[in-house]
Design a protein that fits this description.
By secondary structure, this protein is α/β, with parallel strands linked by helices. The chain has helices at 44-55, 87-99, 156-175, 190-195, 210-213, 215-227, 250-262, 289-298, 313-321, 332-336, 340-347, 356-359, and strands at 16-18, 21-23, 27-29, 60-67, 79-80, 103-109, 137-138, 152-153, 180-185, 234-239, 267-271, 303-307, 327-330. The protein has one domain (26-336): TIM Barrel, CATH 3.20.20.70. The protein is built from twelve helices and 13 strands. It has an eight-stranded parallel beta barrel, surrounded by seven helices.
């Protein structure tokens, strides 16, 4: 069986088009922070790390979060796209991915109150100023936890600067050759902080009601869509629920997704959590799929990516066959095996279209 769009081909290996971006399969490399940049610059590590997924056959590769401003970094070692000097190193990576048949997007992000923290293996909590830390900002002055930095409350000028920074980063992403951009509004970072009443206690036009709490994300989306080429798709990542009483939840996510579709968003990447230390998550295989399914049923013209403990090809195919999502994003399985896509094809009975350098590895005699 060869990859294609026939009924016999597993959906995981059927192509999918988002505007002019043609994906060879439904496998998405989920954004994974690597904390390995210097001054926001991509380097050889990023080239090898991301390039291996193109060689392994993934349909869409999404880079780790790239900060749209220096204070938007999660850690001092985060990838960035706030200056023109970041473009060329990223362009080397997009060229390589395209040369080997893949498509690549970049996740644009601002960490808000979760910024200026240590990479997981370097420490915990806030990075002090003497070690490269900085003043963080957020919708309110409440820190994420006792060990995280206390944010300065964002002014109207701050909000406008952040919106402009997302748009300028998207311009740079286009020059760097990316096929899509993903706006990061999940996992407790800045745009998610504005969405959730647990982090957003503002009393101005950006706080309180659902309309006000979603305002910043919609303004950022609008600003990015204005500068991002119309023939290229736009993605948004959302946490469907905070897993905490009184927080952001699935019903609000469904309504927001309809609004995002009206702003020219082509696909939503549905995850969950990350906003509060009070979250109570029930973890099990494919535990986030029901959130994606709700969005797909309610907003059928929007493509939906699901993620989270979908570790086997059979489980991924079942999710797609059930109509719960259009694309499957993977993180840990691909960290463990960059050629997971090839192994999945073999498991599902699809003839693998390997690059010639690797095809010799399939010989049995």
């Amino acid at each position: 069986m060869t990859p294609g769009d026939s009924d016999q081909t597993p959906i995981l290996f059927q192509p999918l088009a988002l505007r002019d971006m043609k994906l060879r399969n439904r496998v998405v490399v989920s954004p994974m922070c690597m904390y390995s940049a210097d001054g926001g610059l991509a380097n050889d590590f990023h080239m090898v790390h991301l390039g291996q997924y193109a060689l392994g056959g993934a349909g869409l590769i999404i880079t780790e979060a790239a900060a749209v401003s220096p204070e938007g970094r999660i850690s001092p070692e985060d990838l960035g796209l706030w200056e023109d000097r970041h473009i060329t190193p990223l362009g080397r990576i997009t060229d390589f991915v395209h040369e080997h048949g893949g498509q690549i997007g970049i996740q644009l992000a601002h960490a808000g109150r979760k910024a200026s923290t240590y990479a997981p293996w370097r420490g915990r909590g806030a990075v002090p100023e003497e070690r490269g830390g900085w003043q963080v900002i957020g919708p309110a002055d409440e820190p994420f936890s006792d060990t995280f930095p206390t944010p300065r409350v964002m002014t109207g000028d701050d909000i406008q600067r952040v919106t402009d920074a997302f748009a300028q980063a998207a311009r740079r992403a286009e020059i760097a050759g990316f096929d899509t951009v993903e706006i990061h509004a999940a996992h407790g970072y800045l745009l998610h902080q504005f969405l959730s009443p647990l982090a957003n206690t503002r009393t101005d036009g950006y706080g309180g009601s659902f309309e006000n709490r979603t305002r910043l994300l919609l303004e950022v989306t609008r600003a990015v869509r204005r500068v991002w080429p119309m023939h290229k798709p736009l993605l948004v990542r959302l946490s469907a629920t905070d897993w905490a009483d009184g927080g952001w939840d699935e019903s609000q996510t469904v309504v927001l997704c309809g609004l995002l579709a009206n702003e020219g968003v082509d696909a939503v990447d549905i995850s969950s959590g990350g906003l509060t230390v009070a979250q109570q998550i029930t973890v099990q295989p494919a535990y986030q799929v029901p959130f994606a399914a709700q969005v797909r049923a309610a907003v059928p013209h929007l493509k939906v990516i699901t993620v989270g403990m979908i570790d086997t090809p059979e489980r991924a195919e079942e999710v797609l066959r059930n109509g719960d999502a259009d694309l499957i994003a993977l993180a840990r399985p691909l960290l463990g095996d960059p050629h997971w896509t090839e192994a999945a094809a073999q498991s599902l009975g699809v003839e693998r279209d390997l690059i010639p350098q690797y095809a010799r590895g399939t010989r049995t005699t």
